Amino acid sequence: MDLAERPAPPRVDYSSHAYWAGTIKMGLSKFFILRVLHDRAMHGYDIARAVEVTTGGCCSPTEGTVYPVLREFEAGGYVTALDEVVHGRQRRVYALTDRGRAAFQVALAAWMDATQALQDTSRVFAARAAAANDTPCCP
Fold it and tell me: Which of its termini does the chain have fewer beta carbons within 10 Å around, N or C?
């Protein structure tokens, strides 16, 4: 198949709030999974709900999002998983390891750096907008 026959890649609407919100939420989901596990061990469904509550609904990961992350964290030694009976049902309960707690601290510092950069950018653009509104439109 030559280049002319290849289908065009899907277009991304970079002007869409939904695009940016989704991108941010994907990145924050791992962080907030570590965050809620920092408080206590819990199973996947509770993790998803705790993230939703902790973020005030900003991040609402599905169980289909949470479990692959938990498997990745388990493989890396960031969480441990034990099978337990919870409310009469067999559940896999996840807990942070010392390595997971350290990873959360590193992630928190990195997100705070990004937050500071976003705040700085916001201030610069707000100041520019204010300056543009103060200039007379007519000589």
Answer: C
